Amino acid sequence: MVKYRRLLILVAIFLFMTWFGSHPYWVEKYYSTGLYPYLAVLLRGLFCWIPFSMGDVFYLVAGIWLFAGLVVLIRRLIKREWDGRQWLGWGRRMLEAVLIILIVFNGFWGLNYNRLGIAYQLKLQPENYSEAALQSLIDTLTIRVNENRLAIGKNKATTRQVIFPEAYSAYGQIDTTFSFLHYPVRSVKVSLYGTLGNYLGFLGYYNPFTGEAQVNNTVPRFSIPYTTCHEMAHQLGYASESEANFVGYLAAVHSTDTLFRYSTYFDLFTYANREMFFRDSTAARQNYKRLDTLVKMDYRELVLFLRAHRNPLEPVLNRMYDGYLKANHQAKGIESYDEVTGWLMAYGKRYGRL
């Protein structure tokens, strides 16, 4: 019985965290705005001084360890080296390892999936909206994306040495209005797997074990500012992809850099018009035609980039990520990113601006 003591303790901790996570108000008060901000600052402080992503290194080491373990496991299966008792011991150790990973994941960040979040903090009430309301939002976004693209002109190139500090500055601007978006201790890194990420389909990601935000630096430049603000929102404890999109929007539009505002409105127009396409494809095509020529050129650049990196694994990985999001209380899976449209509607209705 002694050998199962650790397993029982881990099961008890996991069950407690699951029970605690089933009470969103408790999560919001005691974890997301209580313990988590201090834990997040501690994690970022541990790794922010390292110029590359330690989280990416950890993932690489873990991948090598898992592959080596799989090879050993297959060899023992083939050679029948273990008896039933040894396999039972292996199963117990694997279950313990999985429980430890889940406990650390939820304790370091994952509980934020259960919080009340930005709707509670801003007193927003996302509701079902009509096609006319959606078109009105698209009209506004069309104006914003066109005017910001014209302000940029032909030269939209920039570097991470400019983008990352400007993203920090943008959050510094927004926290004067919404203090809960205060972002101390900077830790945004360039992903070590950027080229690979182009084939796997990611622009950025958050590592809950190190507190680092990773950004794919090999994609079209105009998409990077909004992605950076999105990943920083995850660092602040907004786990939901739609909330991270919305918080990233709040920060980016407060930037003094026109490229940040353009990057944001470009993505928001895409989300909203994609929804319009499913409702009225003719209207969506007309909306696209109203975009400035330079914006259309950027769309063309992005489409060609995505086509150049299509591969047979991408649909499989998308389904896996879709399952991960659904397992973490995001019922629409990958389509959760598009829900930012509803947040924009609610925000515009309450605060009278976009």
What does this protein structure show overall?
Strand 2 (204-207) and strand 3 (212-215) form a beta hairpin. Helices cover 68% and strands 3% of the residues. With 354 residues, it is mainly alpha-helical. The model has no long low-confidence stretch (mean pLDDT 87). The chain has a three-stranded mixed beta sheet. The protein has two domains: 2-114, no CATH class; 120-351, no CATH class.
Rounded to the nearest angstrom, the distance between the terminal CA atoms is 61 Å
Number of domains: 2
In which range does the helix fraction lie? Answer: 55-70%
Given as residue ranges, the uncertain stretches (5+ residues, pLDDT < 50) are none
What shape does the CA trace take? globular
Labels describing this entry:
mainly alpha; 354 residues; 15 helices; three-stranded mixed β-sheet
Topology:
Blueprint: H1 5-21, H2 24-47, H3 54-79, H4 84-108, H5 118-122, H6 131-152, H7 160-174, E1 188-190, H8 194-200, E2 204-207, E3 212-215, H9 224-235, H10 241-252, H11 258-279, H12 281-289, H13 293-308, H14 313-327, H15 340-351
Parallel strand pairs: 1-3
Antiparallel strand pairs: 2-3
Helix pairs in contact: 1-4, 6-11, 7-9, 9-10, 11-12
